[in-house]
């Protein structure tokens, strides 16, 4: 729970703005303690509904994309994985054009919205 909250904090630092809402599934790492940690920072947690797979469809698609485009067959316990994922996330957010964002990057959209 603390690790998950710390990841959110790092994401906010990277994005250079506070997240108003975070969407999470119903896994144990997103329990009441997780919600309380984020609430103290002014962030609301919205949970996906039970038996509603479309609630997290965009998150699951991101997970598949990062697996296919970045992680592939990399050993999940290797030291190189952290750097590889960090570099990919920078590319994904700052350079990779997204059709769902009208061929813009997430970073460019976030700057306009925040």
> How would you classify the helix and strand content by structural class?
mainly alpha
Largest sheet: 2 strands, parallel
Return Rg in Å: 15 Å
Low-confidence stretches: none
Our count of helices gives 5
Number of domains: 2
Content of β-strand: 5-15%
Q: State the distance separating the first and last CA atoms.
A: 27 Å
Order of helices and strands: HEHEHHH
Apparent shape: globular
Task: Give helix % range.
Answer: 40-55%
Q: What is the topology, as strand order, of the major beta sheet?
A: 1-2
Mean pLDDT: 91
Describe this structure as you would to a colleague:
By secondary structure, the chain is mainly alpha-helical. It has 2 domains: 1-47; 54-114, no CATH class. The protein contains 5 helices and 2 strands, in the order αβαβααα. It has helices at 2-15, 32-39, 57-71, 80-94, 106-113; strands at 21-24, 44-47. It has a two-stranded parallel ribbon with strand order 1-2. α2 (32-39) links the parallel β1 (21-24) and β2 (44-47). The longest helix is centred in the middle third of the chain and has 15 residues, at 57-71. The radius of gyration is 15 Å and the shape is globular. The mean pLDDT is 91.
